[in-house]
Design brief:
Strand order of the largest sheet: 1-3-2
Strand content: under 5%
Number of helices: 10
Structural class: mainly alpha
Distance between the termini: 33 Å
Largest sheet: 3 strands, mixed
Order of helices and strands: HEEEHHHHHHHHH
Radius of gyration: 24 Å
Low-confidence stretches: none
Shape: globular
Helix content: 55-70%
Length: 265
């Protein structure tokens, strides 16, 4: 694949609201496979990184890098062409994971994790023996903590003091475990995701987020979706207005630069 073909594939996954360029550096880098420059809206791929020992190019891995950098561009588009110092935010990962899902569905990118039988078996072992069982343990802990609360009351003691000085665990962790039990969360999502779900007070939104996790959506994708749904319509519109204003300002600036360049030609 050449650089034009890679860009064409990216646009076929999802169109970009602003123009961007994609170039092969023709170099090999020990630090990164690619990078994105928001100021110039340029994706640079160090294409020699993907040449195998047999001389063939690993197009699939090259595409993954291109999709990764394209996610940065789309993320920048939502922020008026700018990116914060911390580029790999939850918003970025949600955009990337969505792009990868679309690319896999359209047969543009191959999910390499499905190609190894040994990895598939190990994944099932991790999910069942560790993620699910760990989630079940924390959920059962919440049930026992509720019982401990009743016994502390009967003994005339403060439950918080029991948590702090007897069990010596953070109160936040104890309260989350209790909510996991009270909300009857599915342990198959894993303890970490259950903690996130336990923080969603609205039952309908919590069930929607849990269902998305069980269907295979990434935690960042689910968290961003839940965050957006929790926003008031006015807040969402104000944020979109700000993003659009930034994009317009960025495009206006670029238009002025192009016009100056045209005058000098």
């Amino acid at each position: 694949m050449n650089q034009d073909q890679v860009k064409e594939k990216l646009l076929s996954i999802e169109d970009a609201p602003t123009e961007f360029s994609l170039v092969f550096s023709g170099k090999k880098s020990k630090k990164v496979n690619g990078l994105y420059k928001p100021d110039t809206r340029e994706i640079i791929i160090h294409n020699r990184n993907f040449t195998r020992e047999d001389g063939k190019v690993d197009d699939n891995l090259l595409l993954y890098t291109a999709i990764h950098e394209y996610a940065h561009h789309l993320h920048a588009c939502t922020r008026g062409g700018r990116l914060s110092a911390r580029a790999h935010t939850a918003e970025f990962w949600a955009i990337l994971h969505d792009l990868l899902e679309k690319a896999e569905t359209r047969k543009i990118y191959k999910n390499v994790f499905d190609g190894s039988q040994e990895l598939t078996e190990l994944t099932e072992l991790i999910r069942k023996r560790y993620l699910k069982e760990n989630g079940s343990l924390v959920k059962d802990l919440g049930k026992l903590l509720l019982r401990a609360h009743d016994l502390c009351t009967q003994a005339g003691g403060r439950w918080e003091d029991y948590i702090d000085r007897v069990l010596r665990i953070p109160r936040t962790a104890a309260n989350l475990a209790i909510r996991m039990h009270q909300y009857n969360l599915n342990p198959e999502t894993g303890a970490d995701n259950m903690r996130f779900l336990a923080g969603i007070a609205n039952e309908e939104k919590r069930e929607t987020a849990e269902a998305a996790l069980l269907k295979g959506k990434s935690p960042d994708t689910v968290k961003i979706a839940a965050r957006q749904k929790n926003e008031e319509p006015r807040v969402s519109l104000e944020k979109e207005k700000l993003r659009l204003e930034r994009t317009i300002a960025s495009l206006t600036k670029r238009l002025e630069e192009v016009e100056k360049e045209l005058e000098s030609v």
